Amino acid sequence: MIEIIKKRAIFIILIIALWETAARSGIFPPLLFPSTAIIGKTFIDGVMRGELINNAGFSIYLIIAGLVLTLLLTIALSTLAMLSRTFDNFLDTAVAVMNPLPGIALLPLAILWFGTGQMSIIFIIVHATLWPMILNTVTGFKTVPPIYREVGENIGLSGSGLVLSIMVPAAFPYLLAGLKIGWSRAWRALIAAEMVFGTAGVNGGLGWYIYKQRYLMDISGVFAALMVIVIIGILIEDLLFGIIERRTIKRWGMSA
Q1: CB count in 10 Å sphere of residue 7
Q2: Do residues 52 and 43 touch, judged by C-beta distance below 8 A?
Q3: Least confident residue range of 36-50, 66-80, 94-108
Q4: What value, to the nearest 5°, has the Cα angle with vertex 30 and ends 28 and 36?
Q5: Helices (H), 84-145
Q6: Which of 32, 44, 83, 204 has the fewest Cβ atoms nearer than 10 Å?
Q7: Range of the domain at 244
Q8: For 22-43, what is each residue's pLDDT tens digit?
């Protein structure tokens, strides 16, 4: 963990140094390429006013809601695919068709179907995350050695019990990788949807904040919001996914 923190610190310091050098070089207009000091001040002001915190909290709420729904659908559909070859073929075709389709392209349909509220954005998040998570999960299930299934059947497991008790733990590296991909794609879908769609009711997330600051030509505010996304991403990667990986995959000696 300490080694990871050191590597991240070195990378961040390097990025800050390069950014500050470019900002002081005079090549770019200060309005469009603010210095790290200005971005840092804007970030602190946004946090102290509570604006960045409220926007980030709303974004995280939408992402969690979308990912929970996606996770439930992934488990259900992947389990059915393992129990039925016909459904497996159908799901494989659905993934091949839907996975390349950008979620933002479905935003007009989402607004027509669900209105101009939170459900439209959650729908886009679910679409963006469901297919890669299913792809990883089903791939993980199919790589489970047959002997594992045979052992499960010998102790009386069958159907969904066999999938949940034997195949899910055995395919866990793929499941965790799929969840990481889903997390990152959820952020992309959310930011894109909010920048096009705007607020969900009276609330807005970081995507709406970025769009608003860009409209006001507050470029330092845009970068301050991007800093929030980066910080949240690092914390989730190290404090959530990192801990899960160390306590499961690495402890069990597993690898995807």
Answers
A1: 10
A2: yes
A3: 94-108
A4: 100
A5: 85-98, 107-114, 118-142
A6: 32
A7: 35-252
A8: 888 878 888 888 888 899 999 9
Q: What is the pLDDT of residues 41-56, one digit of tens each?
A: 999 999 999 889 999 9
> Exposure pattern of 215-247 as b/e (b: 16+ CB <10 Å)?
eeebbbbbbbbebbbeebeeebbeeeebeebee
- Give the CB-side neighbour count of residue 136, counting CA atoms within 13 A: 18
Q: Looking at the domain assignment, is residue 11 inside a domain?
A: no
Residue 185, in any domain of the structure: yes
Alpha-carbon Rg for the chain in angstroms: 22
Residue 28 lies in a domain: no
Measured CA to CA, the distance from residue 118 to residue 40 in angstroms comes to 31
Q: Give the list of residues 6+ apart from residue 179 with CB closer than 8 angstroms, or none.
A: 67, 71, 133, 241
Rounded CA-CA distance 153/131 in Å is 29
* Terminal-residue alpha carbon distance, the chain: 21
Is the backbone of residue 89 left (phi > 0), alpha (psi -120 to 50) or beta? alpha
Report the CATH number at residue 214.
1.10.3720.10
Residue 3 burial (C-beta neighbours within 10 Å; 0-12, 13-18, 19+): exposed
